[in-house]
């Protein structure tokens, strides 16, 4: 194993020879914690080094730069996933999704708030944020809707179907600003029952299951 | 007029003797522009002074600190308002609201993204953000819903009614992250027609007007 490490500087995700997977997860978790606490602009490689007792030179050697480290941390840590949910009805799936999103919102909402402004000005960061936090959830919710169509619960051209993901992720972000509280499980469950399902023409919480 | 200005330091909004209202609006507009461009953490009194060609000592004398200046800028600049909308039907009002929010979203969405993370950690800033950007819109939307109830368009206990404001403000914030584009007039108009109105049980865009 070579001790110089100038090779493949443009592929910061590879070549973690000196860092164990466990240590990598610790580092990524610390990066996300620092982001939640102070936002993207305030995050520094010095701060990460100090929090993780990792040498700054190691951070730069392995990840190259702050945006690359943040992108790697987003990709490298698995958070809640909706993709395993499959209750057999659309209403049941959306209620489970509301619970799952609500459980994670104290963790993920600050992270999205911390990153979203920076991401709108940094295409690479936006891309990583979308891939790590947003697109998997959208895909899972869209799959729930598609199964609901296949089971005949809603029509294929139901006009509200395209907005379910935006509604769920939207109120998750809006509630802290509107009411000063995270969109928790109880709020999202009520929101699904009282707004999303009626919008889809599904009034009962668990229809014909 | 006294040349010393230590009086009323705790009331930064008053005593603008040296600054004309026009100049004040210019300063506030520059503060909001800088916030949109670089976020709250990166905003400095030096940056504001440089952008506005205003002495840093004047900024400190008049506003005391960065959070106070940002709060004053949020309060001191009027942006879009939904409160004048009154078309005679709830569907009509919500469509007008969608247009108005969509027109302003290129201006207000970056500002909310820039401030929301800092606001969740700074109660005074959250309060100002809520008062300046959020509560007026919520109040206006709630008034539309209330008039709809009074006219008998929806029942007083319509379960989706409580979520109209959160949905509109939510998708406005979610779309840039979901689709990489602001929630413009066309998107919000479709969202009102296809998700919010059906959720309220109002299928036609302009019922019994």
Overview of this protein structure:
The structure is a homodimer of 209-residue chains. Chain A is mostly helical. The first copy, chain A, folds into 2 domains: 4-76, Tetracycline Repressor, domain 2 (Orthogonal Bundle), CATH 1.10.357.10; 90-200, Tetracycline Repressor, domain 2 (Orthogonal Bundle), CATH 1.10.357. Chain A is 66% helix and 0% strand. Chain A has helices at residues 21-38, 45-52, 56-63, 66-76, 90-121, 123-150, 164-179, 185-200. In chain A, helix 1 (21-38) crosses helix 4 (66-76) and helix 4 (66-76) packs parallel to helix 6. Chain A is elongated. Chains A and B meet through helix 5, helix 6, helix 7 and helix 8 of A and helix 5, helix 6, helix 7 and helix 8 of B.
Give the structure's gist in a few sentences.
The structure is a homodimer of 209-residue chains. Chain A is mostly helical.
Distance between the termini of chain A: 58 Å
Tally of individual domains of chain A:
2
- CATH fold-level name of the largest domain in chain A: Tetracycline Repressor, domain 2
CATH hierarchy, class of the largest domain in chain A = Mainly Alpha
Oligomer: homodimer
Could you estimate the helical fraction of the residues of chain A in percent? 55-70%
Secondary-structure content class of chain A: mainly alpha
- Count the beta strands of chain A: 0
Q: Which of globular, elongated, flat, extended, rod-shaped describes the shape of chain A? A: elongated
- What proportion of the residues of chain A form beta strands (DSSP E)? under 5%
The residue ranges of chain A in which pLDDT falls below 50 over 5 or more consecutive positions are 1-16, 205-209
**Which CATH architecture of the largest domain in chain A would you pick?**
Orthogonal Bundle
Specify the biggest β-sheet of chain A. Answer: none
The helix count of chain A comes to 8
Mean pLDDT of chain A: 83
Order of helix and strand elements from N to C terminus of chain A: HHHHHHHH
The most extensive interface between chains reads:
A-B, 48 and 48 residues
Query: Over the alpha carbons, how many angstroms does the gyration radius of chain A reach?
Result: 20 Å
């Amino acid at each position: 194993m070579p001790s110089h490490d100038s090779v493949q500087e443009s592929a910061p995700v590879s070549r973690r020879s000196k860092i164990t997977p466990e240590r990598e997860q610790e580092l990524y978790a610390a990066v996300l914690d620092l982001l939640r606490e102070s936002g993207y602009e305030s995050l520094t490689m010095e701060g990460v080094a100090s929090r993780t007792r990792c040498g700054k030179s190691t951070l730069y050697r392995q990840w190259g730069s702050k945006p690359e480290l943040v992108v790697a941390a987003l990709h490298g840590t698995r958070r809640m996933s909706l993709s395993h949910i499959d209750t057999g009805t659309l209403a049941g799936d959306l209620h489970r999704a509301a619970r799952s999103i609500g459980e994670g919102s104290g963790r993920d909402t600050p992270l999205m708030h911390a990153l979203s402004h920076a991401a709108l000005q940094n295409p690479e960061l936006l891309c990583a944020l979308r891939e790590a936090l947003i697109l998997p959830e959208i895909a899972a919710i869209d799959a729930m809707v598609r199964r609901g169509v296949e089971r005949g619960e809603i029509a294929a051209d139901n006009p509200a179907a395209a907005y379910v993901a935006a509604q769920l992720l939207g109120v998750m972000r809006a509630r802290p600003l509107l009411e000063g509280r995270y969109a928790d499980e109880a709020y999202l469950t009520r929101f699904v029952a009282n707004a999303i399902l009626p919008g889809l023409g599904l009034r009962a919480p668990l229809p014909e299951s």
